[in-house]
Amino acid sequence: MSEGIAHYQVGETFDDFLLITSATKSIASNGKPFLALLLRDGTGEIDARLWAAKKEDETLFKKGVIVKVNGEIGQFRNKPQLKIHHIRQAQEGDNVEVKQFVEKAPVSVEWLEEQIKEFMFEMMNANLQRLTRYFVKEYHEELFAYPAATRNHHNYVSGLAHHIVTMLRLAREIAGIYPEVDKDLLYAGIIAHDLGKIRELSDPDSPTYTTEGRLLGHISMMVEEVEKAAKELQIEGEEVMALKHLVLSHHGKNEWGSPKTPHIREAEILHYIDMLDSRIQMMNNALQKTKPGTFTERIYPLEQRSFYKPAFHSE
Amino acid sequence: MSEGIAHYQVGETFDDFLLITSATKSIASNGKPFLALLLRDGTGEIDARLWAAKKEDETLFKKGVIVKVNGEIGQFRNKPQLKIHHIRQAQEGDNVEVKQFVEKAPVSVEWLEEQIKEFMFEMMNANLQRLTRYFVKEYHEELFAYPAATRNHHNYVSGLAHHIVTMLRLAREIAGIYPEVDKDLLYAGIIAHDLGKIRELSDPDSPTYTTEGRLLGHISMMVEEVEKAAKELQIEGEEVMALKHLVLSHHGKNEWGSPKTPHIREAEILHYIDMLDSRIQMMNNALQKTKPGTFTERIYPLEQRSFYKPAFHSE
Amino acid sequence: MSEGIAHYQVGETFDDFLLITSATKSIASNGKPFLALLLRDGTGEIDARLWAAKKEDETLFKKGVIVKVNGEIGQFRNKPQLKIHHIRQAQEGDNVEVKQFVEKAPVSVEWLEEQIKEFMFEMMNANLQRLTRYFVKEYHEELFAYPAATRNHHNYVSGLAHHIVTMLRLAREIAGIYPEVDKDLLYAGIIAHDLGKIRELSDPDSPTYTTEGRLLGHISMMVEEVEKAAKELQIEGEEVMALKHLVLSHHGKNEWGSPKTPHIREAEILHYIDMLDSRIQMMNNALQKTKPGTFTERIYPLEQRSFYKPAFHSE
Amino acid sequence: MSEGIAHYQVGETFDDFLLITSATKSIASNGKPFLALLLRDGTGEIDARLWAAKKEDETLFKKGVIVKVNGEIGQFRNKPQLKIHHIRQAQEGDNVEVKQFVEKAPVSVEWLEEQIKEFMFEMMNANLQRLTRYFVKEYHEELFAYPAATRNHHNYVSGLAHHIVTMLRLAREIAGIYPEVDKDLLYAGIIAHDLGKIRELSDPDSPTYTTEGRLLGHISMMVEEVEKAAKELQIEGEEVMALKHLVLSHHGKNEWGSPKTPHIREAEILHYIDMLDSRIQMMNNALQKTKPGTFTERIYPLEQRSFYKPAFHSE
Amino acid sequence: MSEGIAHYQVGETFDDFLLITSATKSIASNGKPFLALLLRDGTGEIDARLWAAKKEDETLFKKGVIVKVNGEIGQFRNKPQLKIHHIRQAQEGDNVEVKQFVEKAPVSVEWLEEQIKEFMFEMMNANLQRLTRYFVKEYHEELFAYPAATRNHHNYVSGLAHHIVTMLRLAREIAGIYPEVDKDLLYAGIIAHDLGKIRELSDPDSPTYTTEGRLLGHISMMVEEVEKAAKELQIEGEEVMALKHLVLSHHGKNEWGSPKTPHIREAEILHYIDMLDSRIQMMNNALQKTKPGTFTERIYPLEQRSFYKPAFHSE
Amino acid sequence: MSEGIAHYQVGETFDDFLLITSATKSIASNGKPFLALLLRDGTGEIDARLWAAKKEDETLFKKGVIVKVNGEIGQFRNKPQLKIHHIRQAQEGDNVEVKQFVEKAPVSVEWLEEQIKEFMFEMMNANLQRLTRYFVKEYHEELFAYPAATRNHHNYVSGLAHHIVTMLRLAREIAGIYPEVDKDLLYAGIIAHDLGKIRELSDPDSPTYTTEGRLLGHISMMVEEVEKAAKELQIEGEEVMALKHLVLSHHGKNEWGSPKTPHIREAEILHYIDMLDSRIQMMNNALQKTKPGTFTERIYPLEQRSFYKPAFHSE
To answer: Which of D153, D212, E256, F157 has the fewest CB atoms found within 10 Å of its own CB?
Structure first.
């Protein structure tokens, strides 16, 4: 395979395999039908147009299909667009499979599993540790496959576990600096807080919101899971209520979808750790694509700000 | 008993039984101790001062105690205040009990029970009807005892059931005018929407917020109850998700504590019926104490507005 | 005539009469001129393109003209678009007229008139009844022709009267449940509240905002009408002031264009009845076009929410 | 008479005539009745306490009565308070009358009348000039007696006319700098904009809000007056609509009670001139009581800001 | 030269010199490359398309180049667009230069210089006068060349000085009406308030934001300049602090980028004068292009309002 | 000395030395003068009343004086209040001095100095290191004496340095987890961000806002200091601009007083570290005074929330 779609410049010719992640039939302003495709590999994605598409093309080139594409990188409304010269479905002998074309966390699943195990091992409160262990066991497969979000940050395979582990590392250091903090409650809250996304999103590879996700939301769904776990484990201490509260309040404000604002110290800290990790990841993503001495594109969830990359950082 | 504390004017002498609903020891600006009491009977409440309180008075005159009081109605900061001349605990032979002194719904519990039964009988969808019947049976006692809120509206014994029944009556008429409305879902949502208050509030007579209530809120607690009921009744249809959504979204906005805004027609209607009934009750309460041709006091939860009572209403 | 433009699918051929409601000359990205038309019949509307339009086409195909169109239903930016093969002006013998092509209320004008008459008959307060009768008589023609808005809800011929009658039906039931409510004032307020739209909008069939409408607004204009009616009828009671207040405050909030918020009980109720009827109509419109088990499009004036149509509704 | 209540310091003895502007019967924390009075002369006002008030004192010392007071200036909650040693009603021979005790504009009524006449004389547009002349004639007495507000700024006798004249002077200069501005429309708008206060407020000397004022507001009432004037003068030009718009929109924002925001250039300018004059008056009032090198008290309607009085201003 | 691009109608042929202010290479929906140009002369600007652009066209037709263009005025998305038939670079003998094609203030630089000199001459406070003189001398060239903003108002050569002089004229009249106002401080604040734009913007002719401008803003940069001037002039009085405060607070609100809200009278007045001048200029610009009896386009920084141009203005 | 004022209960007798931090002469509602004092020692503060105060008491008992007090702990409006029986000024032989009575950071100045030295030693970028070293040297005394705020958090002697050091510790760990972060810029920003408080506040022991502080604010003043330092050290790199930006934007939002929002990654992180440290300190302060199983008082700067202290934390 070539070095990946993200590294091509306008004017270059592309000739390699890509995964179709979206396919829409449209009609051009001159009245002719075409297929608007969104294609990707592990490095990024690109819009593409298959002009003068035939009836059978619609059947061949659907979401989820791997294709061999030959075309030229053009530009449309300031974004690169691939003008397709030739396209065909991948075949048996091509030796390509879907998982080669999706983005993955920059660390291995094994390392993530190992980390979460270590953090759980640090916990002293039996009730919180048992609840946490229950979640990690019960949702093991999804936890290490799902993204943390459909876009913006940690929106890749294992993104959920990667987000959790980074937050746990921040929590460990914060608890080291402020010994009053209940590390066990904070760890349990971090591991649980976004697990509801497993029900809110359809699948790990090209996640969309489920009906249940849109009507109930991951926060409410996870509170139910905590209740279910507590019942099965026959845990009745105040820890169950506290953990539910951490899940409920982790968005920090009513306006951001938490029915309760944080009213336990560790809930407040959990919210800030969540903000820190997601914001740093978004800034890092944008800055990595930016030349020193210039600004990033506007980052929508960071209040549409652009960030400057100082030249002296590179010294 | 006399006609009730609410009907006394400044300058009159009061001599009857009252219930202490709050008692605080304070020190006057001249340095002398006194007891600040909040006293009530079925018609209303009044602030009172027991000047030059002795040590033993603190033990005698506590929250929940019925007292015989003799004193004069004065005024302090524009509010009536009872200056106590003589006070004693009620005794055996006085034949008074606490339930005589609390405010009750203006309709009987029997009528409320009958009404709810009728509305449930109208329901056609078996799943929603079974869920609703489960709640009414499971929480029967509290449902007909609890207030709908600690203050502002329906804050009296059976207030919760009174609020529900009035909302159901509104729902029946609205569904009559708009036949597209799913009456069953709307009825089920109305009956369930505030039942979580049974766990959010400590008790029906002088309710305060429980710790669980402050940390989780009646909305999240009620979603758990719906889940529990569905499990026990082995109901798995989409009705369970829809009913949870109606409960979750009934405050209408994220800022008002709903983690999801209404995304089902009946959820939106439920929110407006809830607003209508609570707002009309608050206006009626205030207007009833107001002379035609004048304005009510400011009503805090109605954006601090005063309402004018036209003179011609009385024609 | 065929079954109406709203029932055609992409790919089908259309061949029938339509009314031009908007016509704009444009230049395609390949530099060639075309006419962008908006065409409608009683069932709905569709965008259309007349490619390679000639000079005389601009004169023939203007707003308000009925045309016979032959073409194919295509799609552009996810919306259906009619690609015109052949188009001509309607002729004498075609037997079509404009009123066949505009949307009308789902009930007859006669029924609406009858209803309003009945509601007025219920009124007991002579001043309010006379004022109301004056309005219905004075603006009779427009009242039963105008829409209640240019878009979103009740935006069809007789929409204003349809909105008023439905609100009156809600008011009757609400007043039945809360006997304290002054039904006469509420009825009068409902009938008057939006009548200013008759001056705010240019005409009933394809209404646009008048200059006066944009500078003064229907609320202020209607207050003037109440004053004028009171003068002509020589009514001097407090009812005039109260009715003006209901008109002034019916948007409920300063931010929504009411110079005063509701300060009379019936004003507050009027605002909520207005919200209920307009919101239910918008949800019903959207849900009617939606399959069970899916979500509607985002509804802009409902805070851009989509609504879910449960599958079990159809049982 | 002495130099006026505003010039007394804490600890000094006061012995002179004052006007009672408010009288409230209260009960002290030691249980004894007292009268809380608000007293004023032309220089300012002071709170006063008549301890151990007798029954007949309530009848003697009411709002609107002039009294001879002897007492000492004390302090209560950081505000001066007059402790009354001796008080009596003014008598025939005292030669005092109410108008000596109210605050008046710093310019004479004659000068204000002269000014307004001159500005009207400058107007060229006959319709606007006739409308303006009508208002000045029709409401002549009130225009030169009413305050512009009950508190904050221009809250003194003739305050309304003083506010109008200062705004007209600003308008003349602004129109001189921007020749595109329609001076006639701006003058007419300034003279009309707050005239509705004549109906909104009860009387010029100790104004309170009328019922009509609270339910309709001076903006809507003045629009009616413009309509009435136009009818009587048989003026039908666009000037009537424009003048109504200037009145309607002069608060500048919906949130501030204007049902329409400014949509005519002169309406926008009118709003800013109104802001400038009221804000400068409030700052001047506060700064005049402040020593150089210190800050004023917080001014509530100026977003609760305090203003610094530089020392070098006094050079 | 012809009368200028702003005066051409759709359908007319244009044949004259224009300056390229922006040039972007794009690909049409039919896959062919074209150049999207923004062209201007002293009267206004127009979008243009050079279809079927060749490789060398990109080098010839760049930002800053003057071209001779022959083409036809078409329309695209309701805006005029020039379809280029023929285009060439301007040559020696054409006798055109860039400064003929940029917009300039409607008054001469000499007059602006004269005015500022006069206003400085009026100042009595030596410290403020010396600081002001320093700025005018130090930044003389830029002050009379820079625009006051990149768009919306005073966005032309010498716009900054034009804005300052108009504000000074308003200040002089306001200080005449309110003698308490410190005219010297107000003048100094007006001259200084926007000078930081000289560092915030790249250059006077086609200004963009500098990196420093985006990270620090003209407000903070100007405070530094005041400090630097005070140091060099060895001025230590309170005037330096006051002047910095006027600069800091001139946006009026924290939300609008002022780290402090106005806390000196002249700071508050400066903010309102700034608002008045910028708002009147924007309204005048829009109204000048509008026919009497119609509305302007929406003006984005005026809360997206359109303004009505009354017909009687023209009388 | 006794164990400190913070440990006394209502009803107990206090007899020890305290520092007067505020003294106000007032008049009781019975007309008698008294002194309202605010007294403190190293453990906390208490309101006190000296009833029947004599003229000379005002001279003896002023802010800053140490007194020997004998009295009884009472309660007024739910807060403890000391009723003074006997009071005298401290004398020579009492061996008490002011610094014994002020609150101090829970760590030593030496340790704070050592820490800051270490963090500076870690820095690699010469420009940032030199700037930082300059600040620490230039403001050495104040840096280790001033509080970080006048109330809410780190409002004690050395609070500023304590806040800085804790933030640096957080920064070190965060930079360890995200290697992309420029640790040097973040350290420099943390050390500089609040140094302007040295000019904003009057003195370290009982700080009030200076005039300059109220008019310019610590943010703008610190930007000037960075400029001054850069000039003196002849540093011209982009680091100066970046450091100014971190100072300017550290409040995170315009509404919170930052004229620019963060537009450099380290500025965003600095803002979050500042929030984390101040919020955790406020929660810890409140929770420390709270029994397990109960809620803290409302914490005003934490959006008025109360925090629950779980019982299981104590395990």
So the answer is: E256
**Secondary structure (3-state) at E26:** strand
Binned at pLDDT 50, 70 and 90, residue E45 comes out as confident
Please state, rounded to an integer, the average pLDDT across all residues of chain A: 91
C-alpha span between F279 and F281 (Å, rounded): 5
Q: Using only C-alpha atoms, what is the Rg of chain A?
A: 23
Give alpha helix (H) positions in chain A. Answer: 55-60, 109-122, 126-138, 140-143, 159-177, 183-193, 197-200, 211-233, 238-249, 265-288
**F194: distance to nearest CA of chain D, Å?**
24
Cβ pair E313:D182 closer than 8 A: yes
Q: Residue E79 pLDDT > 80, yes or no?
A: no
Instruction: Identify whether E163 is part of a domain.
Output: yes
**Do residues F225 and F148 share a domain?**
yes
**Residue A223 touches chain B, beta carbons under 8 Å:** yes
User: How close E211 gets to chain F, by Cα (Å)?
Assistant: 9
Distance from CA of D16 to the nearest CA of E (A): 32
- Whether F315 maps to a domain, the answer reads no
The pair phi, psi for residue A221, each rounded to 5°, is -65, -35
The chain E residue lying nearest F261, using CA atoms, is: E215
Residue to mutate among D125, D268, D314, with most E CBs inside 10 A, is D268
Within B123-182, where are the H helices?
A: 126-138, 140-143, 159-177
Q: Which residues of chain D have pLDDT under 70?
A: 1-2, 27-31, 77-78, 313-315
Indicate yes or no: CB of B74 within 8 angstroms of CB of D27: yes
Q: Are residues F140 and F190 in the same domain?
A: yes
B209 interfacial to chain D (CB closer than 8 Å): no
Residue F305 falls inside a structural domain: no
Closest listed residue to residue F100, CA positions, set F162, F41, F183: F41
What's E11's domain CATH number? Answer: 2.40.50.140
Residue F22 shares a structural domain with residue F69: yes
- The residue from C101, C117, C137 where one domain ends is C101
Chains C–D, number of C-beta pairs less than 8 Å apart? 77
Task: Point out the residue among F217, F223, F260 whose CB comes nearest to the CB of E260.
Answer: F217
In chain A, how many H helices and how many E strands? 10, 5
**Residue written as token pair 């719904």:** B105
Q: Does A161 touch chain B (CB under 8 A)?
A: no
Q: Closest residue of B to C271, CA-based? A: B276
Over the stretch A66-76, which tens digit does the pLDDT of each residue have? Answer: 999 999 888 77
In a shared domain, residues B231 and B148: yes
Structural tokens at position F249: 């934007």
| CA F111 to each of CA A36, E66, E306: distance values in angstroms, whole numbers, following the listed order | 64, 68, 64
Same domain as F114, residue F262: yes
Give chain C's domain count: 2
CB contact (8 A) between residue A75 and residue E26: yes
Smallest Cβ–Cβ distance between D169 and the set E177, E280, E308 belongs to: E177
Joined together, the tokens standing for residue F291 give: 């029994």
Residue C119, domain CATH: 1.10.3210
Pairing of the two strands D66-76 and F44-51 = unpaired
Beta carbons within 8 Å of E7's beta carbon, 6+ residues apart? E43
Global pTM? 0.91
Range of the domain at D50: 5-101
For residue B22, pLDDT over 70 is answered with yes
Here the tokens at position C39 are 């065409």
Mark whether D213 and D153 lie in a shared domain.
Answer: yes
Q: Which residues of chain C make contact with D219, given a CB cutoff of 8 A?
A: 259
Beta-bridge mates of residue D100: none
> Of B51, B69, B101, which one is at a domain's C-terminal end?
B101
Q: Do chains F and C touch (3 or more CB pairs under 8 A)?
A: no
Smallest Cβ distance to C255: which of D220, D242, D254?
D254
Pairing of strands F44-51, E79-89: unpaired
Domain match, A83 and A113 both? no
